[in-house]
């Protein structure tokens, strides 16, 4: 009969002959690590930009006011200031891309057709994926005047500077359900 100490020695000897298990600390997968880094970066970006004013502009259309009735007494004419005329926008020379962000099938196509009928050079239409608060005309800095004219032509109230991944050589129209 084996004594308890011999049994212990026998078990230790068997364990010594078996391969040792490779247990250790499990590190998270690269996907989890990238996700954590992305969340931290988004938090930093949120807090770094939360106090900045929005870059968007509202465009309002002015209604024609009734003309004044001529009076019997002549009014002295005020000297007019000669201001620098705004550059004329040539619709056919400005590229436009139209994107649908509304879920309404065919909205980008009908809006692109409307822009083309007014004279804009529409070069593409597709769906836009992301959160856009209202229909918007995005513009690079040199096309700001053209963006305002396109917004008026399409009845869009909002313009704002273009951001990545938008192309910086054209106007980008992103439509939401308010454009229907």
Helix/strand class: alpha/beta
End-to-end gap: 92 Å
Topology, number of strands: 6
> What's the CATH topology label of the domain at 91-179?
Alpha-Beta Plaits
Transmembrane segments: 25-48
Domain LytR/CpsA/Psr regulator C-terminal: 94-178
Biased composition (Basic and acidic residues): 1-23, 78-89
InterPro entries: LytR/CpsA/Psr_C
Protein architecture, described:
There is one protein chain. By secondary structure, the protein is of the alpha/beta class. It has a domain of 89 residues: Alpha-Beta Plaits (2-Layer Sandwich), CATH 3.30.70.2390. The chain is 32% helix and 16% strand. The chain is built from four helices and six strands. Strands 1-5-4-6-2-3 form a six-stranded mixed beta sheet, covered by helices on one side. The radius of gyration is 33 Å and the shape is rod-shaped. It starts with a helix and ends in a 5-residue tail after the last strand. The model has no long low-confidence stretch (mean pLDDT 79). Keywords: Membrane, Transmembrane, Transmembrane helix. InterPro entries: LytR/CpsA/Psr_C. It holds the Pfam family LytR_C. It comes from Nocardioides gansuensis. This is LytR/CpsA/Psr regulator C-terminal domain-containing protein.
Briefly, what is this?
The protein has helices at residues 4-17, 30-49, 107-118, 144-154; strands at 57-58, 95-100, 121-127, 136-139, 158-161, 171-175. The chain is α/β, with parallel strands linked by helices. The protein has a domain at 91-179: Alpha-Beta Plaits.
């Amino acid at each position: 009969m084996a004594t308890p100490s011999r049994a212990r020695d026998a078990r230790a000897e068997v364990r010594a002959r078996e391969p040792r298990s490779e247990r250790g600390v499990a590190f998270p997968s690269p996907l989890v690590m990238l996700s954590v880094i992305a969340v931290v970066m988004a938090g930093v970006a949120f807090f770094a930009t939360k106090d900045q004013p929005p870059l968007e502009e509202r465009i309002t259309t002015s209604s024609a006011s009734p003309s004044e009735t001529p009076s019997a007494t002549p009014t002295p004419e005020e000297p007019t200031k000669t201001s620098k005329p705004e550059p004329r926008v040539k619709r056919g020379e400005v590229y436009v891309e139209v994107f649908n962000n509304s879920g309404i099938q065919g909205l980008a196509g009908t809006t692109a057709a409307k822009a083309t009928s007014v004279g804009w050079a529409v070069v593409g239409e597709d769906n836009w994926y992301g959160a856009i608060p209202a229909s918007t005309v995005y513009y690079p800095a040199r096309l700001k005047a053209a963006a305002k004219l396109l917004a008026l032509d399409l009845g869009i109230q909002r313009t704002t500077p273009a951001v990545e991944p938008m192309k910086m050589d054209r106007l980008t129209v992103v439509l939401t359900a308010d454009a229907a």
